Model the fold of this input.
Amino acid sequence: MTQKNAIVWFRQDLRLADNPALNAALDAGHAVIPVYILDDENAAEWKLGGATRWWLHQSLTSLQDDLREHLIIRQGDAASVIQALIEDTGAVAVYWNRCYEPWRIKRDEAIKSGLKDNGIDVESFDGSMLWEPWQVLKDDETPYRVFTPYYRKGCAKSEPRKPLDRPDRITYGDHDAVMGHVDDLALMPDIQWYDGMAAFWDVGEDAAHKRLQDFLEGGLKGYKDDRNRPDMENVSRMSPYLRHGEISPNQVWHIAKEYAAANNIPDKDIDHYCSELGWREFSYYLLFHFPKITWDNLQDKFDDFPWDESDSEELKRWQDGQTGIPIVDAGMRQLYETGWMHNRVRMIVGSLLVKNLLIHWHKGEEWFWDTLVDADLASNSASWQWVAGSGADAAPYFRIFNPLLQGEKFDPNGDYVRRYVPELKDMPKEFIHKPWEAGPLILQSAGVKLGEDYPEPIVDLKESRERALDALQSTKQSD
DNA sequence: TGAAATGTTGGGGCG
DNA sequence: ACGCCCCAACATTTC
Done:
C-alpha cells in the first residue's frame, strides 16, 4: 500500500456521518488514524464537568465500537500528544473539525502553525455550525448583539450546509502506537450518582438519530406551544448529542425540515424548532465575537451589581432542590437525576437564583457546568447572562419570573412536580405549586408537613421581587 | 422567551 | 327605561 497515514482528530464531533474532517482525509486518499485526546491541561477553568465526563465515557465507547477499535485514546496537552503520535505513526497530515471555545481556538492555532512548520499538512473544517461565526455580520461589519436580526437577517440569507453521508468504507492506517483505552481517562464519577442518567439516556451516534426520530414523530407537531411544557414530550432533547457532536446541527436541521415537509407539520412548529437551533448558533457566535462572556458581564453596567454573597446555605438549597418552591425543586432534581433540565424550567430556576436570591450568575453557571450532560461553554455562558440580564439580547432587567405562576401555566396539572418531587405527589393540583397556601386539612390529607416533609419557601416571592427590582434599578442608575 | 399595577369597557343587578 | 354601581375581562403602562 502506498497510502499515507493521516490523523483524524475527534473532538466535539464524535460521529462518522457528516464529519467533514473524516471525509476529507478519506477523499485525499489517506489511511485514517482516528484519535481522541482529553486535554484538561489547556482547558484551565473549564475542565469538563462531572456529568459531561460521564456522557463522554459512553460516547467514546460507542465511537470506539463504530471505528472497530481503531480509535487511539490519550490525555494531556494536545500539541504534545499529536507530535508524539506523528512520530509513532508516520502520519503526514492532521485533520479536524473546528471548535470555538476561546481556549481551543488559541490552542488549535498554535498546533496548526507548529505542525505546518514541520511540513505536516493540517486542515480544519466546519463540522459543528450551521453558519460559522465570522460569516454573519451586520452591514457595518460588526457582530449582531440581538438574536432576531442575527437569525432572520444574518443567518437566513444562506441555507445551512447539507450533511455528508457516512463514509462507505474507512481505510485505517497501520501503526505501532499504543492504543490507550477510555478507562484510562477516568471519566466515570467516583461517586455513584449517575444511575438516573444511565436510565434516562442512550448515548452515541445511533442513539442521537433514534432520539431525533422519536422527537420528530412524537413531539414536532405542536412544538411551538408545547415546547414550554415540562410535563409533555415536545422538546427534542438533542442538546447533549449536539454538545458532543454525535449528530451535527446540519443533520438535525435538514432531517427535521424533510420530515416536516413530508408529514404536514405546520410551518410555525418546524420554523420554531429551527430557530432553537439558531439560539445554539447565536451562543457560539457570541462566544466567538465576545470571548469574555464565559466570566465577565457582556454589559459592563452589571459589574457593580450588588450580588448577595452572604448566605451559601441558600445556594446549597437551590442545588439540592430544597427551595420549597415546587417547580424549582422539580427542575433542580431533574437536573441532578438525569443530567438535563427542560428549557422552560432552566429559565425559572435561573431567575430564582439570580433575581429572587440575588446570587451571582457564576454560581448557577458553575453548577450547570458540572451537572448537565449538555454542558456547553457557549450555551451555558450565554444563557446564564441572558437570565441575569447582563448578556446580549437579554431579558430586560425587570423581567422576573414568578415561579408560582410559571408552574401553574406550564405544568398545569402538576405532573412534572409530582414526578420529581414525590413528597408532593398527593397534593391536589390547586395547591401543588403553592403548598404554603394550602390549609392544614389539605396538607394533612396529602401527607405533607411543611418544614418537615417539604421545606417552607426559601424566600417570599413578592418581597424578593421588589428587592431585585431595587437592586437592578440602582445598577441601572449608576451606569 | 413577564408580572403587577393601572386603566378601560361592558354586562347585569338593582333601585 | 334609566342611571348607577360592581366587577370581571381585557388592554395598557409601568416596573
